[in-house]
Amino acid sequence: MRKLLELLGMGLLVIGGSSLVHHFTDWFGKWALVDRLPWFDGYELYASGIVAVLGFAVLCASDMVPGPAAAAAGLFEDRAVPMTDRSVTADEGPDGPG
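The structure assignment produced for this chain is given below.
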């Protein structure tokens, strides 16, 4: 799952970035996929920026997903923090005794 997210994020980042470069310099004409979509007519710059930022966000989020080696080693099994049952008694307020 992690590799799939990394691939998706990198693809979105490359597509958005190449569309931004194409918008400003007319390079990467074949890679500028956002410029070819008809429903972004007039908004190619904004759409390219959003696609690039979305790709970067997916890349950052892929680091949160544990890889297969970490899951096989059991590194992410004991992440739950046990809850302690400490009820407030009558002589004790919410800030502690006294």
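Interim note for the steering committee: The longest strand covers residues 92-93. DSSP finds four helices and two strands in the chain.
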